[in-house]
Amino acid sequence: MKSVENTSVAARRRRTLSRALARLCALVAAGFLAASLHSPRADAATSSPLTVGVAVQDRCSLLTTPLNFGTYDPQAITDLDVSGAISLSCQFSFINFIMHLRLSQGLQPEAGSTAAAPLRQMTNGTDMLRYNLYTDAARADVWGDTFFTAVFPGFGPYPMNIPLHGRIPAGQNVSVGTYLDTVTATLWF
Known about the structure:
Number of helices: 1
Strand order of the largest sheet: 1-2-6-5-4
Oligomer: single chain
CATH class of the largest domain: Mainly Beta
Radius of gyration: 40 Å
CATH superfamily of the largest domain: Fimbrial-type adhesion domain
Structural class: alpha+beta
Helix content: 10-25%
Number of strands: 7
């Protein structure tokens, strides 16, 4: 008899607990419903602008130093050649098959000059002194401002110095003075 009584008491307790739980759920649901039906007034809203930004770092940088030819002698029978370098520094080595370094035509290119075949000139007032920049020590390949006339530095290691070769052809009859030009080096990657 005792086990039947215990079963009956346990069943009553479960029913009572189940009803209490159902009432609690109903009250919670009613609370959520009441809260959702109450809408705030439209003029009670507030807003504030949110500024979002990011700094993007360059992967690579160039450092150029002046290419100084020294003194040009208009009476000389040989070309005046010099060599220098452009320093390339990258934050990390990365595989980039199209990374290349181009040189512009300069500020006063000769008539007929193109990005692919630059005819560079230094100026002193209205006087012009022809020169050019080359990718090779033999000075056979003019360094241009196109994909096909550029230098491909490869994959490092960085920093690296990229050789630059210059030549002023002999036999130019020019006035005494200082001749200058500015060429822009651009790294494409």
